[in-house]
Amino acid sequence: MTLAHEAITWYDANARDLPWRQPDSTPWGVLVSEVMLQQTPVVRVEPAWRSWMTRWPEPAALAEDPPSEAIRMWGRLGYPRRAMRLHACAVAIVERHGGRVPSDLDELLALPGVGTYTGRAVATFAYGQRHPVVDTNVRRVVCRAVEGKPDAGPATTTADLVAMEALLPPDAPTAARASIAFMELGAIVCTARSPKCVDCPFHDVCAWRLTGLPLPEGPSRKPQRYAGTDRQVRGLLLEVLRHTSGPVPRQRLDMVWQDEVQRARALAGLVEDGLIETLGADDFVLAGDAPQGEIQTL
Asked: Which of 5, 29, 46, 165 is geometrically suited to a Cys-Cys bond with 132, CB 3.0 to 4.6 A?
């Protein structure tokens, strides 16, 4: 039995019951889940995804609202530019594809904010096509099982796509099933720090295990610090704006963070990223909430 079929057999018995994997899930639901899951764990994404899909079950529903509403609904998921990209994506889907998420990979990749991974993930998981879908989890599984290395590099390369495609069965439906199986295996069994090798379907053939589980060379990557960073300050500033319907004066935002230089830098970054807009010299609103003609720059 090939690695792909071993992975599928394991997946059928062990896959997590996630809403975007249900038979009635739509391509739009898959796209939303893939954007939300970038750098955010499933346990935080699932309730946010359900709320988002209840409010905006189709791209057209989101496209009708201003981007500020997408930012508000994003809540504390982190990396809120993803909300802006999803809104821009919804608008493009309506304008270019009549409100239907395209199935063609090139058309998916042409959507705002849809990159190599997301485009292939939607084409594969929503439409059952045969594409190499490679994220951190998949790269780790392939690197260990096939190459015998403890971990893959920091970013997906063309070589990773080629390596994954070589493992896929020739027929599209089975290949699509294999893709999600490899990903799930990396997420819950072949994890970065505490792999459960005894539970792995590749236990008897994994090149990494058969070479004695060598440790990675060089220093291990440390988790990114959050407390005290500009990311934290940006989040605090956005939190105020998300819970306010009208303009927020600068004096109110000054109360969020004591360090004036860092606060000003974070505020300027939010404006530059298009997440907030300025009204006059000292008032701010979420993107899309400003009356026409009143937007200014810092």
From this structure: 165
Active site residue 34: yes
The stretch 101-116 carries a mean pLDDT of 97
Average pLDDT score over residue span 51-66:
98
Question: How many domains is the chain partitioned into structurally?
Answer: 2
Q: What range defines the domain where residue 269 resides? A: 230-296
- State both tokens at 232: 């934290």
Cβ atoms of 48 and 75 closer than 8 Å: yes
- Does 189 share its domain with 111? yes
Catalytic-role residue among 34, 69, 184, 277 = 34
Helices 230-242 and 67-74: angle between axes, nearest 10 degrees: 120
57, pLDDT greater than 80: yes
Give the CATH number for residue 78. Answer: 1.10.340.30
Helix (H) or strand (E) holding 286: strand 283-286
CATH of the domain at 274: 1.10.10
- Summarised one tens digit per residue, pLDDT across range 143-193 is 999 999 998 878 889 999 999 999 999 999 999 999 999 999 999 999 998
pLDDT of residue 19: 98
234 with 186, same domain? Answer: no
